[in-house]
Amino acid sequence: MTPLDGTPVLTAAQMRDAEEATGVSVEDLMHRAGTGIATALRRLAAGREVLILCGPGNNGGDGYVAANLLAAAGLSVRVAALAEPRSAAAIKARDGWGGAVEDVADAAPAAILVDALFGTGLSRPLDDAIANRLHELQATAQFSIAVDLPSGLATDDGAVLTRPPAFDVTLALGAAKPSHLLQPAARYCGAVRLLDIGLGAAGQERVLAAPALRDPGPDSHKYTRGLVAIVPGAMPGAAELASIAALRSGAGYVLLLTDAPGSPHAIVRRAWRDDALDDARIGAVLIGPGLGRDAQAQHRLDTALATPHRFVIDGDALHLVTPDRLATLKELAILTPHSGEFDALFGTSDISKIDRTRRAAARANAIVVHKGADTVIAAPDGRVAIAAHASDWLSTAGTGDVLAGAIAAMRAGLPDAFEAACAGVWLHADAARRCDKAFIADDLAVALTAARGAL
Ligand SMILES: NC(=O)C1=CN([C@@H]2O[C@H](COP(=O)(O)OP(=O)(O)OC[C@H]3O[C@@H](n4cnc5c(N)ncnc54)[C@H](OP(=O)(O)O)[C@@H]3O)[C@@H](O)[C@H]2O)[C@@H](O)CC1
Ligand SMILES: [K+]
């Protein structure tokens, strides 16, 4: 059982390919999966009775294997099935289970509920009776564990075919799947832990991991740490927040292009002029937080984009550019749209957030940080990182400005724009974890220092 950070994310089809590429039989892989599940259950159950619900496919097969191993280890375990197993491996696993098989419809509840009904093979919504029974048994259990995926979730796109109960833990077999991370599915998974079953293959999608950032050395100075220039607009508070966030993420110098006074004094303030960005020492330019969408905003944006800098483009600025304009920039820009800004810039679509974001990155030749409770970061070269669920308390004004500032600081200091975007998203989520409930964006910006300090 290991955390998902940095591990590959595979769709159902990619899982099948990875399974075939191992050259290991399905029975052996199922035995590895069942062994991992049984080991995890022994720890999680702590001696309490376990009820394993087994479906007709290989997800159910995993359940039978685990049940057999748990019983052999002396644990109190019962099995309830939905139907007879259908796949050869699941039939063999069922035959290996020495105990009784109850009917899911009338099985008595147990302290520990294990859902091995459906995994990556779910092809349609559950029957109402099955779904209701799953909810009943989960509600009476003290602790619930989903094998691979909570039954009812699609695997590849975060869709909910039938709403499952919210599980305490989901054991991802072999690799994380998109629905462990994408909403609305992810909210039903609880804590997701990876069980290694020896699959080697990896695509270009990974779960976001902590970045490897270098601390300053004896030769460092404020410009080597990164000079971030921030272009404000109609609502100056947003750019102020972004400036603090950039400093507290480790930028050496933050230049806020305003003559309005403010604090902290560490922010250097200078009035905007059309030549304000003519400084080769600038490591990254952030434009968008509080920019507005009026003629002044458009002028500042056009003026800025005519310079050869590395840009982080956020908020209002995303409404004042087109993908074609972005694709002509000299340096890869980082765009940070929430879903509304994303739709306005790239149009709407039914495909998964991962695929949409990847296409948008290719279209605009930019790094796209598609924000939300399931932030997806994509690069034009195909790399994708998906952030594990961060604090729901981030849903407050100004947190996007803080994110933009953190990303700008990373962009000023790191050569790879995708890695910079990933590092900023990580710092932002980690800062939120360090804040109390009902924190405000100012607290979040301050907490970036502790998040940076932990790396
Ligand atoms: N890949 C790997 O490396 C490994 C994978 N492993 C495990 O295999 C799991 C995937 O197994 P799987 O493909 O057999 O699919 P699974 O989710 O058990 O269900 C399919 C069955 O359910 C049926 N069915 C579907 N929807 C239904 C519905 N709404 N209501 C009723 N029935 C429905 C469907 O029938 P059909 O759609 O044809 O009617 C079929 O019979 C995976 O999650 C992991 O746990 C590990 O063992 C080892 C390594
Ligand atoms: K399941």
TrEMBL record:
<keyword id="KW-0456">Lyase</keyword>
<keyword id="KW-0067">ATP-binding</keyword>
<keyword id="KW-0511">Multifunctional enzyme</keyword>
<keyword id="KW-0413">Isomerase</keyword>
<dbReference type="GO" id="GO:0005524">
    <property type="term" value="F:ATP binding"/>
</dbReference>
<dbReference type="InterPro" id="IPR030677">
    <property type="entry name" value="Nnr"/>
</dbReference>
<feature type="binding site">
    <location>
        <position position="59"/>
    </location>
    <ligand>
        <name>K(+)</name>
    </ligand>
</feature>
<feature type="domain" description="YjeF C-terminal">
    <location>
        <begin position="205"/>
        <end position="455"/>
    </location>
</feature>
<comment type="function">
    <text>Catalyzes the dehydration of the S-form of NAD(P)HX at the expense of ADP, which is converted to AMP. Together with NAD(P)HX epimerase, which catalyzes the epimerization of the S- and R-forms, the enzyme allows the repair of both epimers of NAD(P)HX, a damaged form of NAD(P)H that is a result of enzymatic or heat-dependent hydration.</text>
</comment>
<dbReference type="InterPro" id="IPR036652">
    <property type="entry name" value="YjeF_N_dom_sf"/>
</dbReference>
<comment type="function">
    <text>Bifunctional enzyme that catalyzes the epimerization of the S- and R-forms of NAD(P)HX and the dehydration of the S-form of NAD(P)HX at the expense of ADP, which is converted to AMP. This allows the repair of both epimers of NAD(P)HX, a damaged form of NAD(P)H that is a result of enzymatic or heat-dependent hydration.</text>
</comment>
<dbReference type="InterPro" id="IPR004443">
    <property type="entry name" value="YjeF_N_dom"/>
</dbReference>
<feature type="binding site">
    <location>
        <begin position="58"/>
        <end position="62"/>
    </location>
    <ligand>
        <name>(6S)-NADPHX</name>
    </ligand>
</feature>
<keyword id="KW-0521">NADP</keyword>
<feature type="binding site">
    <location>
        <position position="401"/>
    </location>
    <ligand>
        <name>(6S)-NADPHX</name>
    </ligand>
</feature>
<comment type="similarity">
    <text>Belongs to the NnrE/AIBP family.</text>
</comment>
<dbReference type="GO" id="GO:0046872">
    <property type="term" value="F:metal ion binding"/>
</dbReference>
<feature type="binding site">
    <location>
        <position position="238"/>
    </location>
    <ligand>
        <name>(6S)-NADPHX</name>
    </ligand>
</feature>
<dbReference type="Pfam" id="PF03853">
    <property type="entry name" value="YjeF_N"/>
</dbReference>
<protein>
    <recommendedName>
        <fullName>Bifunctional NAD(P)H-hydrate repair enzyme</fullName>
        <ecNumber>4.2.1.136</ecNumber>
        <ecNumber>5.1.99.6</ecNumber>
    </recommendedName>
</protein>
<feature type="binding site">
    <location>
        <position position="115"/>
    </location>
    <ligand>
        <name>K(+)</name>
    </ligand>
</feature>
<dbReference type="Pfam" id="PF01256">
    <property type="entry name" value="Carb_kinase"/>
</dbReference>
<dbReference type="GO" id="GO:0052856">
    <property type="term" value="F:NAD(P)HX epimerase activity"/>
</dbReference>
<comment type="subunit">
    <text>Homotetramer.</text>
</comment>
<keyword id="KW-0520">NAD</keyword>
<feature type="binding site">
    <location>
        <position position="400"/>
    </location>
    <ligand>
        <name>AMP</name>
    </ligand>
</feature>
<feature type="binding site">
    <location>
        <position position="148"/>
    </location>
    <ligand>
        <name>(6S)-NADPHX</name>
    </ligand>
</feature>
<feature type="binding site">
    <location>
        <begin position="371"/>
        <end position="375"/>
    </location>
    <ligand>
        <name>AMP</name>
    </ligand>
</feature>
<feature type="binding site">
    <location>
        <begin position="119"/>
        <end position="125"/>
    </location>
    <ligand>
        <name>(6S)-NADPHX</name>
    </ligand>
</feature>
<keyword id="KW-0547">Nucleotide-binding</keyword>
<dbReference type="GO" id="GO:0110051">
    <property type="term" value="P:metabolite repair"/>
</dbReference>
<feature type="binding site">
    <location>
        <position position="338"/>
    </location>
    <ligand>
        <name>(6S)-NADPHX</name>
    </ligand>
</feature>
<dbReference type="InterPro" id="IPR017953">
    <property type="entry name" value="Carbohydrate_kinase_pred_CS"/>
</dbReference>
<feature type="binding site">
    <location>
        <position position="290"/>
    </location>
    <ligand>
        <name>(6S)-NADPHX</name>
    </ligand>
</feature>
<dbReference type="GO" id="GO:0046496">
    <property type="term" value="P:nicotinamide nucleotide metabolic process"/>
</dbReference>
<comment type="similarity">
    <text>In the N-terminal section; belongs to the NnrE/AIBP family.</text>
</comment>
<feature type="domain" description="YjeF N-terminal">
    <location>
        <begin position="11"/>
        <end position="205"/>
    </location>
</feature>
<feature type="binding site">
    <location>
        <position position="151"/>
    </location>
    <ligand>
        <name>K(+)</name>
    </ligand>
</feature>
<keyword id="KW-0630">Potassium</keyword>
<keyword id="KW-0479">Metal-binding</keyword>
<dbReference type="GO" id="GO:0052855">
    <property type="term" value="F:ADP-dependent NAD(P)H-hydrate dehydratase activity"/>
</dbReference>
<dbReference type="InterPro" id="IPR000631">
    <property type="entry name" value="CARKD"/>
</dbReference>
